[in-house]
Sequence to fold (94 residues):
Amino acid sequence: MRASINAGPGNDTVFAQDATARQSLAGGEGRDTLLSGSGADVLVGGPGVDTLNGGVGNDVLDNVDQASGDSAQGGDGRDSCTSDPGDQELVCES
Fold:
């Protein structure tokens, strides 16, 4: 089972750290913060300066938006991160 959240336009914060199901979190336009739980999750920042944190699990973090200033932390697990040149912080295991 996968839970999906699309935050849409605007500055959003999505806290989903307590969830154990696989999650798909999308920030949309704006300055977004996405924090996922212990599943194998997919986080997509979208346009704007975003902060992604995958938490525990083998996660995919996508901060490609043709802009700089994003940050991504995979957390525990084997994670995959993509970002743009000039993004501030990228901490992933793979």
Summary: Residues 2-76 form one domain. The chain has a mean pLDDT of 90. Residues 56 and 76 are 5 Å apart (CA to CA).
